[in-house]
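A quick aside before the break. I want you to see a complete sequence-to-structure record at least once, exactly as it would be stored in a machine-readable document. Don't worry about memorizing anything.
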Amino acid sequence: MNLPWHDLALSKLQKMIDQNHLPHALLITGVEKIGKFELMQQLVGILLNDDEIIRRDNILEDMDHPVLIRRSNYTNMIYCRAGEINEKTKNRSKDIRIDQIRTFCEALNKTADGLQIGVIFYGDQMNVSAANSLLKTLEEPRENTLIIILAHNVQNLPATIVSRCQNIHIAPSYSQQTQQWLTEQLSETQQADFDVEQLLENTHGVPFKVLGELSDGSYAAYQAHQNQLLSIATHPLMINQTQDFEGNELEVLDCLQNLVIEAIRLKTSGQEGGLVELNQVIRTAKSEFLFKLLDDVYLAIHLSKTSVNIKLLLDNILIVWSHITHLKQYPQISANY
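That is the input. The structure line, written in tokens, reads:
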């Protein structure tokens, strides 16, 4: 699968291969659904000169029985992932455990003909003990062995792991090539109903996230939240009609975050977007207030993961949003959290 937003990362990997400088440990990073797993598959296909063998691996599917590591269709390749059933507790683990990493390392330390490949996904889901048990293998790998660690957030990995790997980052993309690829994935009805550029803006440049939200119906809910938020900004009395937000506070905050980011981008560049109401906001809202509101939305999203009253949290944010076009002074709403 040719994913245009992978071109830069793939070219770096190809250069390493061509110059025989491929390291023993790679760290592939990027936000969720940016295609880290697919880039890993493409890399392995190049190394094995076989683009199909590992694409037959059903590694992303959950098993219904305990397992520590999984084998690939390529004999010398193994996977270690979160979400496996723990043999002791019989529950599905949210992290990668130390017993999994120990088995992973033992398998890679065995003599094998040909290139040995071990893939860990996602590395930022290793618990502390698991990460520590991986260090020796990273420091003293066997020859002809490649360890590939996929991670959503490199900041959640120990520095000792990061420093022993060559980092390849996949950045979000809004390019014309990415828009064209995404357009080709949509049905004719979807192409008529949605603006591809706006879809990418709403998901911060993550094409697979666009497809996921369109397929599961969550984008329709997102559009409803977006329309209501824009109505509140242009008609402040609409703030009294937010009953649809109850139970969906975090989704609404995420939607508002996207709107404010887009407003700042357009206002800074002196452009107009495709949302008429947002253009009205841009023309009259002060840039400094938009930045302050964005900070408060970021903080609210962070606090939503605590025991804070998220409904009250959202209400405070919405009051400011409803007055954003005619504020004379920005209120210190963060003090209420």
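Two observations worth writing down. The chain has two domains: 4-169, 217-336. The beta strands are 25-29, 70-71, 77-81, 116-121, 145-151, 166-169. We'll return to this after the break.
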